């Protein structure tokens, strides 16, 4: 694992250097608004520090602190990966191929750095012990909250796809807005069938959430899923959970904060395609609150699953 992390660090530093020297932005601030290309030097720094820390880790285990710092920074760099996956699944293009590649590379680095940092403290003969137990009652109640938070969002979206009107916009107007914004054929076809793509993704997200807190989620890696004679690891659930939590929790929490400021009149909420700013604020509250509550619930559930399925010494 240390060698894989070292290779990643070199590749990540070279990737950032190439982007910085060519003035290619690694980050997008939303839509078609690229961030400063100078941020590429940040990727160079993270890769260089990670490379040095991994190379000296065997001699100085205290360097794992640097690995965790690089892990957090790589996780920040991976923000937006979930949005890239969603747009690609439904046949839409990403804002930037370079930015999407950076999201994937940063996410892989965050996982490698975390695993390498943990391996310093874990004995090499540790084995994975999976107990068929559910999460604690508070964690399951948190999962309930994350599930219920999506109900208003689903009702709003399905109202539009069924031809109804919500927040001053009818289903036909919302479909026209989707076409104008370049929605893919898959997206538009689902809407014509009365289905909303984001509601389907929310259902998958709820399924993932309960998989993290119920006993069948712990047994999932042991079901007839085998790769070259080895069981599929717990990362099968942890990887999408971490990507979702790292994206939806900060997006939702900061979004709710902005919506609260807009409600108090401190900042102004643009009306966008809605008849009024109050309509836009209503829709914003419903969507952002769902992402915030679900994102926090996913963090709690992921931590519970991590601890309940972690590697321990035999006996």
TrEMBL record:
The keyword Transmembrane applies. The keyword Transmembrane helix applies. Keywords: Membrane, Transmembrane, Transmembrane helix. The chain crosses the membrane at residues 39-59, 66-91, 97-117, 138-156, 193-213, 234-260, 280-301. It comes from the Bacteria. This is DUF998 domain-containing protein. It comes from Streptomyces alfalfae.
């Amino acid at each position: 694992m240390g060698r894989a992390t070292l290779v990643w660090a070199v590749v990540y530093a070279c990737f950032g250097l190439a982007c910085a020297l060519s003035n290619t932005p690694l980050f997008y601030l939303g839509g078609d608004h690229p961030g400063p290309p100078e941020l590429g030097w940040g990727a160079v720094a993270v890769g260089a520090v990670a490379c040095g820390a991994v190379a000296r880790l065997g001699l100085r285990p205290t360097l794992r602190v640097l690995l965790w710092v690089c892990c957090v920074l790589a996780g920040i760099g991976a923000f937006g990966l979930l949005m890239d996956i969603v747009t690609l699944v439904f046949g839409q293009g990403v804002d930037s191929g370079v930015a999407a590649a950076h999201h994937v590379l940063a996410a892989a680095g965050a996982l490698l750095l975390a695993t390498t940092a943990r391996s310093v403290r874990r004995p090499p003969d540790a084995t994975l012990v999976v107990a068929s137990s559910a999460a604690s009652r508070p964690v399951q109640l948190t999962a309930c909250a994350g599930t219920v938070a999506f109900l208003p969002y689903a009702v709003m979206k399905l109202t539009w796809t069924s031809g109804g009107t919500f927040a001053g916009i009818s289903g036909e107007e919302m479909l026209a807005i989707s076409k104008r914004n370049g929605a893919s054929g898959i997206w538009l076809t689902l809407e014509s069938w009365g289905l909303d793509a984001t509601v389907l993704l929310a259902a998958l997200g709820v399924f993932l959430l309960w998989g993290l807190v119920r006993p069948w989620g712990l047994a999932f890696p042991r079901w007839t899923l085998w790769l070259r004679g080895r069981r599929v690891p717990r990362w099968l659930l942890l990887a999408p959970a971490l990507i979702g939590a790292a994206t939806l929790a900060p997006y939702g929490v900061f979004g709710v904060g902005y919506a609260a400021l807009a409600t108090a009149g401190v900042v102004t909420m643009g009306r966008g395609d809605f008849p009024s700013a109050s309509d836009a604020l209503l829709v914003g509250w419903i969507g952002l609150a769902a992402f915030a509550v679900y994102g926090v619930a996913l963090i709690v559930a992921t931590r519970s699953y991590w601890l309940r399925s972690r590697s321990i010494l035999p006996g």
